[in-house]
Design a protein that fits this description.
9 helices; 187 residues; mainly alpha
């Protein structure tokens, strides 16, 4: 009989604690709307009306998009792109953030957002496409004698070096396409 009394006493304390916790949660969610209304109706109080709750910012993971990752990667050269994805692949997002900020001149928040997007949506390096309209304007401004001079250094370059660079970029692009967001999570 004594054991039953002790068990009932402990259960009653547990039930009262649970009810009190629920009451406190509700009270915290609705901060005294009745008290402010009664003092305002009285005219004697100077209580302010309850302020609506401010919306909280969304977590960073929901703000990622493939387009934002493409835009962030478009600001990088091939070598910069390789260095940033190498840092991400090695599990060093802070290093990648510092590199991105240094390469682009962007702030910490913008760099963090860009690195988050690039980690969540890996992008292969894409060479910038020259604008046909802007390329035509300098050619028309230069005399015809200058055109062969600019073409000679390009023709003098060895094709093997350009070919090996293209192969290297292709390998990096294949590597970047195989990256998954899970690869950047620390165990």
């Amino acid at each position: 009989m004594e054991l039953a009394v002790i068990i009932l006493f402990v259960l009653s304390i547990a039930v009262l604690s649970a009810l009190w916790g629920r009451f406190e949660k509700r009270r915290a969610a609705n901060p005294k709307p009745e008290a402010g209304a009664s003092s305002g109706a009285d005219g004697s109080g100077g209580a302010r009306p309850a302020r609506p709750a401010r919306p909280r910012p969304a977590p960073a993971a929901t703000g990622t998009s493939p387009q934002a990752a493409r835009d962030a990667a478009a600001l990088l050269s091939a070598d910069q792109h390789r260095q940033i994805y190498a840092a991400l692949g090695q599990g060093q997002p802070v290093k990648a953030l510092k590199l991105y900020a240094m390469f682009t001149g962007a702030g910490i928040r913008a760099s963090g957002a860009a690195i988050t997007n690039m980690a969540a949506h890996p992008q292969p390096y894409v060479r910038p496409i020259p604008d046909p309209g802007s390329a035509a304007k300098p050619d028309t401004a230069k005399p015809d004698a200058a055109k062969p001079d600019t073409a000679k250094p390009d023709a003098a370059k060895p094709a093997a070096g350009a070919e090996s660079e293209a192969v290297r970029e292709e390998e990096i692009s294949k590597w970047a396409q195989q990256l998954r967001p899970e690869d950047f999570l620390k165990p």
